[in-house]
Amino acid sequence: MNTLIAKNLNILIDFLAKRDLTALAPDELQAKYKINQADLLILFGGSIPEGADVFAKAHQQNIAKNYLLVGGAGHTTEALRQKMQSSLVDIDISTKSEAEIFALYLKNKYNITDCLLETKSTNCGNNITNTLELLKNLDLKPKSIIFMKDATKCLHSGYSPKNTEPRVMPIVQSTTYVYDSTDDVAAVFDEPTKSLIYSRFANPTVMAVENKIADLEGGVGAMCTTSGQAANLLAILNICNAGDSFISTTQIYGGTVNLFAFTLKKLGIECIFVGHDATDEEIHAAFKPNTKAVFGETLANPALTVFDIERYANIAHAHGVPLIVDNTFATPILCKPFEFGADIVTHSTSKYMDGHALQIGGVIVDSGNFNWDNGNFPELVEPDPSYHGLSYTKTYGKQAYILKARMQLMRDFGCYPAAHSAF
Ligand SMILES: Cc1ncc(COP(=O)(O)O)c(C=O)c1O
């Protein structure tokens, strides 16, 4: 075997899926990694015909000894299986338990010490996130990363139809969902994130958009709202109570200024404004013991000033609070604030995200990177009496912030978009 990094096994993970035809072709793999034959080629999303074609071509050219198809349970998988027979393993690792099974499979079948992961961003749906997690658990560090590109994510992220399911996410026009027994209903009411409960909390059509935007931003979860105003309101209310304060730059949308300076003030939350070009010292000096967040807009509306996300993130983190960035004007296509240290992103999707001036909407995205258990955010850590003593950080880990927003604030304020609006 001739591989670049082979010890016992070289796992070659390639994301060829979802019509991303710019992904590496087999001959390119050979040229780039000087691999004549890898032990294992892992393909994500092989149920998409083009991805499956490249996979079949790789097989034809004998690129690898074994082929692992992840999350490709569609009809093309069946065709591939017939062509490739026993060398194809087909597995879905969109949940943690599936990831564990996959890890066991890799451990038992091979003695893995090294791996090569071809992908471009570090987040591309649950399959990829879980794979990265399990590679870490196996002490494997991917050597290079090329994932699905943004244009492909815009089209395909957030919804992965299985065999015979509709190609396009349908408009699920239903307020409620069906359960076999009252026990099932009780379980869902106890913890509404377990399954669909009621379309004020979540709806499949809206969730597809949430997952797509979370993927584009590189976050661990997202929650849509009926407007950008609602997104910024809930983003702040999720961590600020009456008696708290937060810092915002002055260069933000006028409607947000009204919300922050007047309406939140009525609720007992103070917004401390700092000049867009304030020095580090001036921003540090603006903090009070009750300050819970820092806020800015990537490109301000209407001033179009550029927010120094990295600088503000460093300052916010030095005070143990998150940076919230309204990324409406840039969109994740032009700027991904999480890559510069932001912790929470909001959008008015009414603008460029919508693109056709059709639908008012908003979204909050959670990077999953902020440590809420630092003493400043007891409401995320300590038992929530409105959910029978559940702790968001303990129960949901990296998704604590976004699930608290859904379970508490969306439950109580009810500003969730209708399925039609999300389509
Ligand atoms: C940067 C920014 N944030 C938030 C909003 C509010 O969004 P919406 O109009 O969807 O409520 C706007 C609207 O103009 C905006 O430009």
How would you briefly describe this protein structure?
By secondary structure, the protein is an alpha/beta fold. The chain is 37% helix and 15% strand.
Describe this entry's structure for a reader.
The protein is built from 17 helices and twelve strands. The termini are far apart. 46% of the residues are buried. Helices cover 37% and strands 15% of the residues. With 423 residues, it is of the alpha/beta class. The longest helix is centred in the N-terminal third of the chain and has 14 residues, at 96-109. Strands 6-12-11-10-9-7-8 form a seven-stranded mixed sheet, sandwiched between helices. The protein has a five-stranded parallel sheet with strand order 4-3-2-1-5, with helices on both faces. It has helices at residues 26-33, 49-60, 75-84, 96-109, 125-137, 150-156, 182-190, 204-217, 228-237, 254-266, 280-286, 309-318, 331-334, 378-381, 392-396, 400-413, 419-422; strands spanning 10-14, 38-44, 64-70, 88-91, 114-118, 221-225, 245-249, 270-274, 291-297, 323-326, 344-348, 362-366. Pyridoxal-5'-phosphate is lined by residues 227-229, 232, 253, 255-256, 297, 301, 326, 328-329, 348, 350, 360, 362. Pyridoxal-5'-phosphate binds next to helix 9 and helix 10.
Question: Which features does this protein show?
Answer:
single chain; 423 residues; alpha/beta; 7-stranded mixed beta sheet; 5-stranded parallel beta sheet; 17 helices; 12 strands; globular; disordered N terminus; binds pyridoxal-5'-phosphate
